[in-house]
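Page 47, continued from p. 46.
Same chain as before, 462 aa.
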Amino acid sequence: MSQANQAVAPKENTRGRVLFASMIGTTVEFFDFYAYATASVLVFPALFFPNASTINAILSSFAIFGVAFVARPLGSIIFGHYGDKLGRKGTLVASLLLMGIATFLIGFLPPAAGHWTVLAPTALVLLRFAQGLALGGEWSGAALLATENAPKNKRAIYGTFPQLGAPIGFIIANLMFVALQTFCTAEQFMAWGWRVPFYFSAVMVIIGLWVRLKLVESSSFQKVLDQKKVVKSPFAVTMKKHWRPTLAGTFIMLATYVLFYLMTSFTLTYGTQPASVEQATAAAEAKGKTFDATGFVPGLGIERPTFLTMLIIGVVFFGIFTVVSGPLAEKFGRRKFLIWVTSGILVFGLAWTLFFGPGQGAAMAGLIIGFTLMGLTFGPMAAYLPELFPSNVRYTGSAVAYNLSSVIGAAPASFVAVALWKAGAGNTLGVGLYLALGAVLTLVALFMTRDTSDMDMEEWVE
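Result:
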């Protein structure tokens, strides 16, 4: 090679850098997101809604939790626009910064009292909205980082690495909450302990930024630049020319979202709710409070640190089967593999009360089965959704599909599940049927979509 050619030879992302950068970024993002999710169950109802009844405070906390999912489609449009016009790297750095700053500031919010009675919940809503914007742009960029740099027959395998950020981030966040609840008194935890994970996010953001700033653009996006195929408005082009795969991708993700937020946020609420009025009364008296049985809904009555540990065990299965899903999706094809997994989710929804109702042992079995299915369905998404779109609108198309699904799948999941549990006076049959319905809608979308395993991501530019 001549010196001139050496001078212009493009840099390439190494395999290790691609996989680590795609995983560390989503780990940071999901750590921040799940730190909020856990606090929304353990702390925020009492901290920001002290005058509401227990169940209404939980519902209010989940309503704010859902604000991020409303923001996510907007984030997907904003970050998708710049990701398809300017490149993946800068967009990924910006989304990580936004998530980190918003999460860090949540740790400084005061309780809703005095002058902060209205301001504290309002500030929480705004910061939660910022988290949603950031996650709206993060996932698709990380998925493209992995899959656009992968060999053709290993895209689903590479794509599992950004997906691993979800279980890893969840485990780190919840291990911190378990440790804090173990070593802090109840008063210390409510006063300052819950804030530690939000402060810790700053350390993780620095690590993520350091790795991502070393990346170079993928050859797929470079080809878009070389062919001068960058579109003026990626969102408009996506909606005009690629609305069908966008709609299909939205419903392909639906069962995954419903399953995950039932397995995490809802089960934590249900599992730690007292199993009887007597247990609730004793718990209130231990805190020096009077228990009001009005609107009481029985749960499993498991101690919070114990149930968080159960969740962490379940999420380990989530991580393991996320990795397992990659080779399987390559061997059988994304579509066929996901049809089988989604059918499993449907059956699990119909059998929900066999696991969430009898007691702690059944609940542990349910968490393991549910999180196993979660890993199998979530793992292939980082390959399947981007493969539905050409390179010049791939960031926008996959991000919009993924995050529109969050609005109809994830945002209402915890809120609807709590309402169904309340309507059932403690029976969770309605929750299982809700999950089964999500699985049916996903199956319809899968049957209407082609398999994408053999498409060429680098050459497909429109």
